[in-house]
Design goal:
elongated, two-stranded antiparallel ribbon, 78 residues, alpha+beta, 4 strands, two-stranded antiparallel sheet
Amino acid sequence: MIKWNPERNSMNEDNINMEIRKFLKKVGITSQRIIENQINMANKSGSIKIGDEIELEMSLSIKNFNSINSISGKILID
């Protein structure tokens, strides 16, 4: 939980950074498992081969701020 310090009228940046890192670790582990599972299923079905590129796009929404951001990239199958 991000802690607000009303006396300083500011947020505790160390706590914020730790909370963000915890969230990103959870996202990273979960995302990696999903990607690996999808690639393994595609490999078993023969729908991908060596030399193919897998296009990825991740969306990050911050509901409190009505913010949506996309991050895209590619994975080369070798």
